[in-house]
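Exam revision sheet. Question 4 asks you to relate a sequence to its structure. Input first:
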Amino acid sequence: MTGAALWCYEFSAIPSLMTPADITTLLKTRFSDTCTINPPDAWQIETPELNLLVLLSSDQTWLRILIPIVPMAEAQPFFGEIMEANFDQTRMARYAIHENALWAVFQHDLASLTTAHFSAAVDQLLGMKQAGIEPFFNNLIETRVRQIIQAAKLQGQSLEATMQTINRFYAEGMMGDMQDQGYGDRALAAWQRQLERLWPEVNPPEVADNG
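Answer key, structure tokens:
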């Protein structure tokens, strides 16, 4: 391969970097008429299901994409799980709190941002919006149910007796933050399902160690 041909090959292999015009083109292509442009540094995708914002810094060197997920009050019982997700699950995006809402946020230096990276970030944020707080709800319920099962088996309780204990906790308003934020009925049903599913496999620590 000649020097000129090699240079052309290497140049063509360089990923396409983003410009504000590229942002407009990509968003218009993907979201059509739902894309509103606020020159020179803001774009908004607004539908009944989502409100996606794309913002540039005042010097147009830094890009941020963000989308609200749920009101902060709904997310509050799961802050611990959300912070853990930020540490090891969310990849290029992060969860954040702003204006009393839980947001999914992506930030990147515009000078090194490629169109492929931009599109992948939008995909991930839309996925986080679609998932909502359901993964955190399920994880928290499973963690608490495992703790309840371990304590119940240490005391020699049966599955039926433990189910009655959970029902009593609910009736007495002892479901914690989830009940305070209106998750009570849903949490109770989830606890009952998880209790039946996990009962055969969860044992107290000393039983598990000796078994």
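Marking note for examiners. The first helix runs from residue 3 to 13.
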